[in-house]
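Appendix B: a complete holo record

For completeness, this appendix reproduces one full record from the ligand-bound portion of the collection. The bound molecule is manganese (II) ion. The inputs are the chain sequence and the ligand SMILES; the output is the full three-dimensional arrangement of the complex, encoded as structure tokens. No fields have been trimmed.
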Amino acid sequence: MDTKTYVFGHTNPDTDSIASAISMANLQTKIGKYAESFRLGDLNKETKYALKTFDMEEPDFLSKLEDHSNVIMVDNNEFSQTVEGIENAHIQMVVDHHRLNLRTSEPVHCIAEPVGCASTILYKLYKQEEVSITPKIAGMMLSAIISDTLMFRSPTCTEQDKKTAEKLSKIAGIDLYQYGYKLLEAGTNISDYTPDQIICIDSKDFQHEDLKITISQINSSNLDDVFKIKKDLETAIEKRIQKENIDLFIFVVTDILEANSKVIVLGNRVDIFERAFHLQLIGNTTILKGVISRKKQILPAILEGIKQKIQI
Ligand SMILES: [Mn+2]
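The structure of the chain with manganese (II) ion bound, as generated:
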């Protein structure tokens, strides 16, 4: 038997990172390879809800890679969002739907598509390999699509995501919308998290030249509930900015019912955010109407904001 391949998504894993890792490891196993899925951090409540619903085990935690490990990266290709030791690993494959920001020393099998969810690409790989998807795996992949596209409302969502979700819901044997809203709702419960934890649940770091930008996002069905602890969240964000030398921290609270986001923006480069969205923050906050996607709406606007000259 060949050596084990480590399959994992990004740090601060979301439902897609876990579902894609599980389904990719399963696919590899079915085609005779030795692969295992891992998580690069604690799971959020939405993902736990999905795993419980479909009676699946949490993947083991992976803290560090040994040199020359074989890996498959899913739902991520940025080294700033992956496991320690990736520089000396052998990347066999990447399956992703984020911007490409990958530099390797050897050729890599890279499947990247601008769809709403990595699991949508995985579904096609199962078809390609003629491997059938079990109801449990289908349930996890479906959960990932619902989560990543916020029930098909994200601008990242494509017709392919929707069709794939419908097929997966039939395999899983569940009502897509009924289950979907329960899943999203399960992810909004932050009552037993500290402010420090809340800003880390789904936090992603982006290094752009000499700038360090962090965009952290949570879902909510009641924005007031989150913003009543705004002061505490700001304190937690300031602390993290100091500790990690972050230039711009954007905390995004996405309203899953209205499909808008309210943000808290801090750091010494909030000017980038204000330029990106052509607005001025009041009390470090603003509402972004119709903005729900970090990868397709917030990050591109920020990168554009960096390019523009300061206009005062
Ligand atoms: Mn994803």
